[in-house]
Amino acid sequence: MSRFFELLNKTAGQTKQRGSPWDLLLAPQVPNGDAQQMPSEVPIATTVPTAPTINEAPALAFEPHSKDRIFALHNDRNLAAENIRILAGRLNYLQRQLLFKTLLISGTTKGEGKTVIAANLAITLASRDNKRVLLIDGDTRQASVSRLFNAESSPGLNDCLSSGTPPFQFLRRMPTMSLWLLPVGHGAETPLRAGQLGQLLARLSVEFEWIIIDSAPITLLANAAAWAVAAERYLLVVRRGVTPKKMFSKALESIDQNKLLGAVMNDCIDQSQTHYTRYYQQIARGEDTSSSL
């Protein structure tokens, strides 16, 4: 992965108010019950148990399978980590302008890297910006986020939707930062309905400043389309040499353009990578970097 950049267009109204899409993207950065009196003369006080809070969520026993996939945790000087920080800064700016919390990250086909981008973006928002961030594994078929965080055996989204239990019971928390995970959970793949997902996200939005959703490719499965309806905004991930142009065009035609923030280009050629690497190598050796700037 060499760099990320945002493409595509904003809505006509947004463009008119704030300038071009490039100007916008590149800008700086259940209560307790009351005591009840029984018909007999002996008073019996009863209470309704409260739902668990997000701070009571069990900790993830997390050790990433592949550190090069969760690079935001381990390598501040990695170019991919730097590009994720730039993306996080631009999204924070857009969030202040557009007032949204739920962000769907999807693509058009397998292998574009959307799960890696979603996971590292969530980590960056939680660790560097100190935001309360929830990462949802919305790909009920692949469960890629759950596997990445070693949470594939934990109950989660499927259990929540099938049982009607409040979602907070199924959250897992990263012990070192303000990041929570809602895994896919157990049971067969659950057909997702946009209305049900919208209610779920509305309930979770009360507790979190960012909700990042990793879904299946948006052109392939109905569950991804349901997430696209329920989420407030979304990003598309495309990858050089992987994303077919026809499928990308089909994705653009099938989604709500008013919700689309842009696209993230993954694994593109970036001539600045050599300069970036050399600059930090000079810092590590204690050399003068003025000529590199």
Explained architecture:
Helices cover 35% and strands 12% of the residues. The chain has 293 residues and is α/β, with parallel strands linked by helices. The longest helix has 20 residues, at 79-98. A 7-stranded mixed β-sheet has the order 3-4-2-5-1-6-7, with helices on both faces. It has one domain: P-loop containing nucleotide triphosphate hydrolases (Rossmann fold). It is built from 10 helices and 7 strands.
Nutshell version of this structure?
The chain is built from ten helices and seven strands. It is of the alpha/beta class.
Supply database-style keywords.
alpha/beta; disordered N terminus; 293 residues; Rossmann fold; 7-stranded mixed β-sheet
Topology:
Blueprint: H1 12-18, H2 21-25, H3 79-98, E1 102-106, H4 114-127, E2 133-137, H5 144-148, H6 157-163, E3 172-173, E4 179-182, H7 194-205, E5 210-214, H8 222-230, E6 233-239, H9 245-254, E7 260-266, H10 272-284
Parallel strand pairs: 1-5, 1-6, 2-4, 2-5, 6-7
Antiparallel strand pairs: 3-4
